[in-house]
């Protein structure tokens, strides 16, 4: 498997799962074995492995990200992080608005649960809002854990993220020796979790085969119908953010020409689209910023690499739409405060896990767990994930470049307009 990219194995698993699932009914028995039970086992195993890594990965990622800002990030860092928070927040709001307007998880007025083969029982989740997220005050209270170990055991991600941000913020306030040991420890935890994520993701083809075959056996080809609406909702959201929101930010805050900026970054955007990696695109991003747009090297060399690590507008939008789509498919109506929680988690998790393989998958699992939903819908989302991954990476990189020009302009070292 090592010589073939993982996404090709996932696509192959998807292609194989569809015909196999169509010829197998839930009650079919072959040689004394129920294939449906095998599909269910494979899919459940993958989802459990994914859930296993969520808590330590998010905690280590957020602590590292916050501790890495240092004791005083200065004017350049503050403006950079300010832009990244604003742009990601606008991206998530765009996705949230579109998914509420288009409701891809609702088909013919009914939740798409049966159509896409979701089998887990969510009867007790319909009243989730009454269990502590009925209003904004309840969400704010949940952000502060009374027992951080209990929060970890119950995967209360909102509380864990609050704790992790505070922990990471205080690390630079320690003595230099202690601060360095803490950074080394959490960097080690993060590196181990990245490696473990890579191991778990090699189970993805098996998991996708099991989840999709199970869905085909249960619901048939109708399972893919709602995914078209999901795909189009994400695609439109990414397009709106890239061609409307980000250019407006560029014009308002940098007085720069959006069309000239787009042409100047064309090579980097094409690289991002084809590689699906902000980090791999970084050398080309820096080259285009400095050579085509005239951004000073000391600005681009700080803002763009930081953006490749923490600024994931497209990813945050995708996570929000995916979580809302799955909630709609289950027939779970999320109140505005709970949707606010989804927005917050999409924003924070897109920063915390951005640098790992299949970051969106882990982050969506985090959000679903936080709002009390099963994660079984992730397997079907993978069926349309590859093209969306390419598109959202291009949006991520484009936002990095917009932010670099805006920061350079705010520092009175603007790019050529």
Question: Which descriptors would you attach to this protein?
Answer:
18 helices, globular, 2 strands, 417 residues, Proton glutamate symport protein, single chain, mainly alpha
What is the CATH architecture term? Orthogonal Bundle
What is the rounded distance between the termini?
Answer: 47 Å
**Low confidence ranges:** 124-135
- Overall radius of gyration: 22 Å
CATH class: Mainly Alpha
Overall average pLDDT: 81
Q: Beta-strand percentage?
A: under 5%
| Biggest sheet: strand arrangement | 1-2
Tell me the number of strands.
2
Structure description:
There is one protein chain. The chain has one domain (about 5-410): Proton glutamate symport protein. About 70% of the residues lie in helices and about 0% in strands. It contains 18 helices and two strands. It has helices at about 5-20, 35-65, 75-100, 135-140, 150-155, 155-170, 175-200, 205-220, 225-255, 260-265, 265-275, 280-290, 295-310, 315-330, 335-350, 360-370, 380, 385-410, and strands spanning about 105, 110. Helix 11 packs antiparallel against helix 18 (about 385-410) and helix 15 (about 335-350) packs antiparallel against helix 16. The longest helix is centred in the N-terminal third of the chain and has 33 residues, at about 35-65. Mean pLDDT is about 80; it is low at about 125-135.
């Amino acid at each position: 498997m090592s010589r073939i990219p993982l996404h090709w194995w996932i696509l192959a698993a998807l292609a194989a799962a569809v015909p196999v699932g169509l010829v197998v009914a839930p009650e079919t028995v072959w040689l004394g074995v129920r294939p449906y039970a095998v599909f269910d086992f494979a899919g459940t195993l993958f989802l459990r492995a994914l859930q296993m890594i969520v808590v330590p990965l998010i905690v280590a990622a957020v602590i590292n990200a916050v501790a890495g800002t240092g004791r005083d990030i200065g004017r350049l860092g503050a403006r950079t992080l300010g832009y990244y928070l604003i742009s990601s927040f606008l991206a998530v709001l765009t996705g949230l608005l579109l998914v509420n307007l288009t409701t891809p998880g609702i088909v013919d007025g009914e939740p798409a649960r049966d159509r896409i083969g979701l089998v887990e029982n969510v009867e007790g989740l319909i009243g989730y809002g009454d269990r502590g997220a009925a209003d904004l005050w309840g969400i704010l209270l949940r952000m502060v854990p009374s027992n951080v170990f209990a929060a970890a055991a119950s995967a209360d991600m909102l509380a864990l993220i609050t704790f992790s941000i505070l922990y990471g913020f205080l690390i630079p306030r320690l003595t230099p020796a202690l601060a360095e040991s803490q950074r080394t420890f959490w960097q080690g935890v993060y590196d181990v979790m990245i490696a473990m994520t890579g191991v778990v993701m090699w189970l993805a083809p098996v998991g996708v085969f099991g989840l999709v075959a199970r869905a085909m056996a249960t619901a048939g080809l109708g399972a893919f119908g709602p995914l078209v609406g999901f795909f189009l909702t994400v695609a439109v959201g990414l397009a709106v953010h890239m061609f409307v929101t980000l250019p407006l930010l560029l014009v308002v805050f940098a007085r720069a020409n959006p069309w000239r900026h787009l042409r100047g970054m064309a090579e980097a955007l094409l690289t991002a689209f084809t590689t699906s990696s902000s980090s791999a695109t970084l050398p080309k991003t820096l080259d285009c910023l400095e050579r085509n747009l005239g951004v000073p090297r000391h600005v681009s060399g700080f803002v763009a690499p930081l953006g490749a690590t923490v600024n994931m507008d497209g990813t945050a939008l995708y996570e929000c739409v995916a979580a809302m789509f799955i909630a709609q498919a289950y027939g779970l109506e999320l109140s505005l405060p709970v949707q606010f929680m989804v927005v917050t988690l999409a924003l924070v998790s897109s920063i915390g896990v951005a640098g790992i393989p299949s970051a969106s998958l882990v982050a969506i699992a985090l959000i679903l767990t936080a709002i009390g939903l099963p994660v079984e819908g992730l397997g079907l989302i993978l069926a349309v994930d590859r093209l969306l991954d390419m598109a959202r990476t291009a949006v991520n990189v484009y936002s990095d470049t917009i932010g670099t020009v805006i920061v350079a302009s705010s520092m009175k070292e603007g790019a050529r307009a």
